[in-house]
């Protein structure tokens, strides 16, 4: 019995090692000599002693990035509403009852650079209640965030619509009574 167990263990060991070697691929018999790789150094423009050195011209991509960063995202419209239907706010207003269970801040933006993000910062009585980052995926985009309103959350509210780095683009105020 011991002999058959030892034989079985040996067989399993060799099968395991054999499958491992097979999975690694065949052993290479001959290694090829590596050829040295030479690269030419980038050519730098010659500067004459009497000419002042000039900074390199910015690339087209760098110019486009600079232009895009100076153009601002614009909020074309923003409303507080009780629902969003077909990508539009319904039940929009500036005063809501305390039995309203959820409110939405709907925003329509124009973004010259296309893809970016904005934030909706919800304030209740001048204290931050929620902050939501929203993706802007095209030059004209509609988006919204929502806030659950509990019956005790009466008072003055506002939503600051900001750039991703915090610059306020528009503020929408409303009250829950």
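^ structure tokens above, recovered residues below v
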């Amino acid at each position: 019995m011991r002999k058959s167990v030892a034989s079985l263990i040996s067989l399993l060991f060799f099968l395991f090692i054999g499958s491992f070697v097979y999975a690694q691929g065949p052993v290479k018999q001959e290694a090829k000599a590596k050829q040295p790789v030479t690269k030419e150094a980038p050519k730098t423009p010659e500067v004459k002693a009497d000419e002042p050195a000039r900074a390199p011209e910015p690339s087209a991509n760098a110019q486009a990035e600079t232009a895009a960063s100076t153009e601002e995202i614009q909020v074309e419209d923003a409303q507080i509403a009780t629902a969003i239907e077909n990508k539009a706010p319904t039940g929009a207003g500036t005063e809501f009852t305390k039995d309203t269970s959820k409110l939405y801040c709907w925003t329509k933006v124009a973004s010259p650079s296309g893809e970016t993000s904005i934030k909706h910062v919800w304030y209740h009585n001048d204290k931050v209640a929620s902050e939501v980052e929203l993706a802007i995926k095209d030059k004209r985009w509609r988006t919204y965030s929502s806030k659950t309103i509990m019956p005790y959350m009466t008072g003055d509210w506002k939503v600051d619509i900001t750039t991703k780095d915090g610059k306020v683009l528009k503020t929408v105020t409303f009250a829950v009574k």
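Confidence is low (pLDDT under 50) at residues 19-38, 51-56, 62-70.
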